[in-house]
Structure formats: structure tokens, C-alpha cells
Amino acid sequence: MISSSEYGSHSWELLVTVDHQHEEVQKEFLLRVTGDLHIGGVMLKLVEQIKIAQDWSDYALWWEQKKCWLLKTHWTLDKCGVQADAKLFFTTQHKMLRLRLPNMKTVRLKVSFSSMVFKAVSDICKILNIRRSEELSLLRPSEDTLKKKKKKDKNNKEPVTEDILNLCNSPVSSGLSGSPGLYSKTMTPIYDPVSGTPASSTITWFSDSPLTEQNCSILAFSHPNCSPETLAEMYQPRTLADKAKLNAGWLDSSRSLMEQGILEDDQLLLRFKYYTFFDLNPKYDAVRINQIYEQARWAILLEEIDCTEEEMLIFAALQYHVSKLSLSSEAQDFISESEVDEVEAALSNLEVTLEGGNTNNILEDITDIPKLADNLRLVRPRKLSLKAIKPYWFVFKDTSISYFKNKECAQGEPIEKLNLKGRCEVVPDVNVAAKKFGIKLLIPVADGMNEVYLRCDNENQYARWMAACVLASKGKTMADSSYHPEVHKILSFLKMKNWTMSPQAVSDPENTDMKPECFVSLRYTKKYKSKQLVARILEAHQNVSQMPLVEAKLRFIQAWQSLPEFGLSYYIVRFKGSKKDDVLGVSYNRLIRIDIATGDPITTWRFSNMKQWNVNWEIRQVAIEFDQNVSIAFTCLSADCKIIHEYIGGYIFLSTRSKDQNETLDEDLFHKLTGGQE
Fold first, then answer.
1. Per its UniProt record, what Pfam families does this chain match (predicted)?
2. Helices marked H in 498-607 — which ranges?
């Protein structure tokens, strides 16, 4: 019974369920409130009524029906729209979450379920000592992966116990400011740049971190490869549609975990979402480099990205080398002190290459634009006959290729001029063993793509022309400071491919303790016998056998970045006005429309030519406007259109980063570019 004075007032009863561990205390409480009572007042009333002496600072109100947190404690119930029928939960904001890292290890840690995912990932990366958290995000495992796992568990008679690294005692993961793990804001070198081991004093500086030396090595080192049986049981995408499913589960960075239906102790994947690895530095990034290496390794082993047989053997040789050094106790003493400076220089070159630019030689950008002129062979595919191969005199100037009948005709009009600026796709067509050095150019024309092949005579010629084509496709000329590092990168990759059989190196493959099935995809284990694979991997290993551990990982990442499909995330879409489905490839600098049946690119649109993009949330359609009155619109069939919208905005946000930002991010700008106005 309530008094008549209370009955006459505007008060009403609000049911709140409290999430606590005390079994003897009730969990549901009825509070008498008024609409002008603020959220902080509701929580105060509730705590007074619970009568349990504990720290309630991490608790907040969760509105079940609306799937939202009531975090603005100064807002009134009326302003929030809370009425008597609301079901509120008083629960902790930080909860346990299991995260599967790129190296397939699972860590268990406390994460904020009330912060936006972008902020939650930033906190996770601080615990794990991964810089540049904006490149990562959280992904729900695809249904096909889960189905395969359930089938595997069903076939296993013994229950599988997962090895989980527990980091739940972390001060950061408890919601406190605490220690930054090994994350160094002062930029004091915290890793040996050669071996990737924590610098001797690092662990003692941050002794209160959950990243003990042992835990740190689990994250920063590549551990023994999984068995061939395990690899065979893992989900492998077969088609572009399968690859599209892998990218459907990205969480919305602008909403919290609870708002997206994630529950306590759920498992999510922590992955590099954006393939622009900024400022990779072995002195600070041992964990980050290892996790990128592992994500690349699994993408190749599970055939999420295509590569040639020659490339697969290089990847296998580098994996074998990394696993050997990681297991060896002498990994950190791999080279003598006198050689450290040379390795530092080599790694800084690699770092520049991986960043895609060099800050030195700025004068190159403002001097005369260089040009290339050479005898090359032109190959044009013919539908009803063999390919026509003819030699011509080629001139590469600015971002265009012109070709003439011979060198003497170069002063006149060219037979044809191919404009590559910011529009074409450049694909390597190389077989070093067969001395084939080709460049495949896919140039957009009104009715699709114009396919042109250029054939070079040798590695040096190929590297110069390939680098020029790659830069032109990004809208840059050979005067750009990244041209020479690009040539160097291509030559070093060709050098790794160019191995010769050495009797000393592969004297007796049978005595090698290598399991080759762990280093190549299933396609090659079915194609070759184990002995053949061992011999071929050891052959390729000769060119990388002297590399220190971290450099080998960086070389692997670099080779992965050289693959034509690198950095493409696929989605099945329906373009406006089209009657059939297409695949849309989203990359760091462009969108590609791909034929779903053949896998051939149809059209490319560069972000540099984009004027604006928006989403019609009612019909879930993404509309993009480019220069020269080009506009496209599509609906996404394999995922929510918000995911593609966030990808585009995210890549544009990442392109604004610079080294002088001191690692602080404009979080508001990220949400402005990616959040959308739903």
C-alpha cells in the first residue's frame, strides 16, 4: 500500500535487476522514482537499497529493451525516455572476453563492454603492447568456421581443452588507468630490433604489467607450427563468395560490445582490419610485427589470398626459417655486435619500404620527372586466336606509357598512349625460373577493362618498369621519393625467388626434421610428396638462411604485400541498375568491381578521385560520387552496408596519419568519417 500523498504525485515504480555475486541477497529491486530524477540519483538510491558494502564504481545501468547503456548520469529519466515498463540491469561495464589473436592464441582479459569498440580495441592493444590500434578491430567468427569447429569437436572423442593466456589481472583491463603494459609512450627502445626479445631492462620497468617475459614471448614469437591434420580441419574459402563471408562479421566501431549482442566470456577475433601498417619499427613493435606476420601466414596457408607456386615456396622457406630461429635459444645471438649497424640499416630500409615512402630525398619530388625508354614486347590477348607478341619502343613519362614502332619513330605520334594515372590495376606476371618477367595492366575503358601485357628482358628492367606502373596506378610519377625503394623492394623479392640447387644445402632431405605440410597450403600437399616439398623448401631457404629473425618476418610481410590480391576485403553487392550480383573489393586506396563468376576486375575507382559518399539508411544503399561526374550506388548482400561505409571512412582516416602526431588519434574525426547518420 502507498500513501495518498505518494499516489497523487508523479512517482512510479521502476524495476532494476542487479548483477552481483552474493547469493543470499536478492537481485531484483523496486525503486519509487519520478521522471525528473537523474540517472546518478537512480544508482545512488539503488546502492542504498542493496546494502552491500563493495566498490560499485564500475557499475552502470543497461536498458535491455533498447539495447543501450544509460551512461549520462546527469540526464533525467524523462530525457532518457525511461518509463515504468523499462527493464534495467545494474551491471559491470568491464567484463571478461576471450580474444583469438592472429597467431591463433587465445587471451582472456577484461574489456569495457560500455565503450565504443574503437576505444575498447585501443585499450586491448595497450595491454597486448600493440601500437597503432586503429589498424585493428574485432571480428565475429564466420558461421562456416564455427560449423567446421563443431564438426571437428563432434568427431573428437576426447574433449578439446583450449590453451588460454589469462591476462585478467591487468590494471588496464580492470578499468583503471594503471600501467601501460610494455607500451612505451616515451619511445624508449623496448625490443631488440634483431631478435624481437624484450630489452633487458624493459620487464623490470613495467613489472606490474600482466605481460611478463613469458607472456610477452607468446605474443612476440612465432611458435611451433600446427599439425597438418589441424590445418586440414580449418575452414578454407574456395570462392570469392566464401571470402566475402569472412568479412561479414566486423563489429561496428561506433557502438559498444553490449549493444552488438556480445556477452561476457564470448570469443571474438582480434585482427588487422586495415592493411596500412604505419611506422613499423622493430625497436617497439615486436608483438605487432609478429601478429601481422601470423595474420599473413594464415591467410596464405588457408588460401584466403592467392599466390603462385614459386611464391608459396618462398613463403614456406621464410616460415621454416622463422620457426627454426624462434625455437633456437641462440636466436638473439644470431649475429655479432659488429653487424648490428648493418642490420639496423637494412631494417630501416625495410621499414621505409613497408611504409610506402621515404622522407629523405625530398628534392627528387620537385626536379624534372624522369622517364623510362626501352625495347619491350607487347602482348595483347585475342579471343579467337593465339596471343600476338610484338616488340615495340616504349616510353614511360609522367603516368603514361606510349609505344612506337621503333626508337627512330619516338619523335612522332605514338601507336597508342596508355594512361595509367590512378585508374589501372597492375599485376605481376613473373616466373623467375622460366626467365619470364611480365607486367599485366588492366586499364578501365567504357565497356570494361583493357588488358595489356608488357614483357621485359631481365630483372632490372622489370623492376624499373613495374615500380613505375605501381606508382602511376596510385597517381604518382617516378619523381616521387618512393620510386627507388619500390624498385629495391621488387628486386629483393625477385632475388628470393631466384634460387639454385646447392648440394651442400640439401644433401639429405630425409634427415631434416621439417614437416613441410605445416608451411604450404593443402593444394601443394596434395600435389607433391613430402620428400619433394622438403627438397624444394630447403632449396628456396638458401636465399634467406642468413636473415635475422625480425628481418625474416618483415620480408614475409613485404612479400605478402607484393601479392596482387593483398589488402582486398571482399563483399557481395548489387549495383544500382544491375540485374546480377557482383563482388566489391575494398582496398586501402581503391574500390574494385569484380565479376563474381570469373573473378576478373571490371572497374576500379580510386579514393583519391572520390568527392563524397553517403548511405541511404532506409534502403541500406551506399552512394559514392567521383570526379568527372562518375557516380555509383550499391546495396550490400553479404554484410551490413555499415561495414563497407566504415571501411571507406576508416581508410580515409588512416591516410591522414603522420609521424609528428605523437601517436595521438583524432577519435572524433574517425567516428565522423565512419559512424554514419543512422
1. FERM_M, Kindlin_2_N, PH
2. 522-527, 530-541, 549-561
